[in-house]
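hey
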């Protein structure tokens, strides 16, 4: 098949999933054309059968706001003709899904199919905003197929949007072997480390509740020798820094910034904190599990479909820093318990979220829309 993939090129989970999907599809002999305003972060090279098409953003004095969505739709149509695409797979409803539907109309001579993957905040935050809701609703209703990344997101979409259609759940995925290779996570060594490492990886939006990350770390480090590594960048980084200073733990916090591969960093982690207020899946929790790192997360959204409480991590109510701290201290102080969690986390990631089982689910959806 010839598939166009449109996604945010930044370090958010939707861009990561879209890029890894495209690379796996190309390995499976499909032609893949990425369309975005910059090369996606995880597209560090162009493997065989993969191309990248940049949407140029120009500024005209006449226009106060450049109509990016229209430029995107034009580029999608141009690439659909150039690469003779069968499918446009839009990741995130706004603006990719809406622009893909416009492109489909522009290239009316081809029977171009639009597959839309909803990732979470396009339903819970952005797409649900009053200025976008009618467009988001039309996009979900009109795409040839719609996938969602968890059962929770499926229910939430149907609850928040007046749409009547099938939504197929396709979970986020990882490559277990690559995680093992890149992580080099040696369990005996990890139990011998005296200073424990807590890690948080995100785009530092308010939904990530970075204050809870720092507050939990401060409580934990009052009980045992620990450090906190903050990976990624975003608007709440200064909030994290200020709170760490206020709580007197700043010198034990390392700010790493954006990285294209998280597995090598996860090698240093003893546990991952993900105290989000909403999370449709929690790709970063899955990546941690694949690297043998237990997760302490909010019991919210799609997270319980990924992290098993008491086995691969612990879940606590949103904002319950005390409970998160208790779970963290228990895991960090008990090497045998942590070893069990590490092994269970790796096994659960490989069993339920291996790309070899999930990429074919997307292929089956492509085939079913092409057959209609
Ligand atoms: O988490 C973010 O803020 C980034 C966001 C995105 O769209 O890039 O992530 C969403 O999509 C990921 C991939 O499907 C999911 O694993 C994340 O849980 C989801 N984030 C939220 O729902 C907050």
């Amino acid at each position: 098949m010839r598939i166009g993939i449109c996604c945010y090129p930044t370090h958010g989970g939707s861009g990561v999933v879209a890029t890894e999907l495209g690379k796996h599809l190309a390995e499976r002999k499909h032609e893949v054309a990425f369309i975005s305003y910059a090369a996606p972060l995880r597209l560090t090279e162009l493997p065989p059968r993969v191309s990248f098409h940049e949407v140029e953003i120009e500024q005209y004095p006449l226009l106060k706001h450049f109509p990016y969505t229209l430029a995107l739709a034009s580029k999608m149509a141009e690439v659909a003709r150039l690469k003779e695409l069968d499918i446009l797979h839009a990741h995130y409803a706004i603006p990719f899904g809406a622009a893909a539907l416009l492109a489909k109309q522009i290239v009316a001579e081809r029977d171009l199919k639009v597959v839309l993957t909803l990732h979470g905040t396009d339903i819970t935050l952005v797409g649900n905003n009053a200025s976008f809701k009618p467009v988001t609703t039309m996009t979900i209703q009109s795409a040839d197929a719609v996938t969602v990344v968890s059962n929770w997101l499926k229910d939430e979409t149907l609850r928040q949007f007046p749409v009547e259609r099938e939504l197929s759940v396709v979970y986020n995925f990882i490559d277990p072997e690559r995680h093992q290779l890149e992580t080099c996570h040696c369990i005996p060594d990890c139990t011998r480390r005296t200073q424990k490492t807590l890690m948080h990886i995100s785009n530092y939006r308010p939904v990530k509740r970075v204050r809870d990350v720092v507050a939990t770390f401060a409580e934990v480090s009052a009980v045992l020798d620990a450090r906190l590594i903050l990976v990624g960048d975003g608007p709440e980084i200064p909030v994290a820094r200020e709170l760490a200073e206020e709580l007197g733990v700043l010198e034990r916090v390392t700010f790493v910034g954006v990285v294209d591969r998280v597995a090598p960093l996860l090698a240093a982690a003893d546990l991952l904190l993900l105290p989000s207020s909403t999370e449709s899946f929690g790709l970063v929790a899955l990546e941690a599990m694949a690297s043998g790192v237990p997760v302490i997360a909010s019991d919210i959204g799609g997270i319980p479909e990924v992290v098993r409480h008491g086995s691969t991590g612990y879940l606590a109510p949103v904002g319950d820093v005390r409970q998160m701290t208790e779970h963290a201290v228990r895991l960090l102080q008990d090497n045998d318990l942590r070893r069990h969690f590490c092994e269970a986390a790796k096994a659960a990631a490989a069993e339920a979220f291996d790309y070899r089982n999930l990429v074919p689910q997307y292929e089956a959806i492509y085939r079913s829309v092409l057959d209609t």
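The longest helix spans residues 335-352. Residues 247 and 309 are 29 Å apart (CA to CA).
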